[in-house]
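Many introductory courses stop at the sequence. We go one step further.
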Amino acid sequence: MLILVRHGRTEGNAKGLLQGRLDHPLDEVGERQAAAVAAAIRSQVDIDAVIASPLQRAQQTAAAFGQPVETDDRWAELSYGRYEGVPHADVPSEVWERWRSD
């Protein structure tokens, strides 16, 4: 069984920023989210491996499972290029739609 878990919230998420490859850590809410999802999953299944992107937010979320974390660059988020760190609301709608459909 493969279970995919998105990282917990970061300050960038809370501000509505496109983070991509920016390395924001989890905020307090994100730390609680990571702990909660790890506990919920551990209560349901035995975990054989934990693999995460090298980004700090992913590493912190993975660490909540209490097992060794294998880091794999292939799980890192895509870069948003010049929109990296820009609020989602500031990206022109036609640019966002073109990016999403690509």
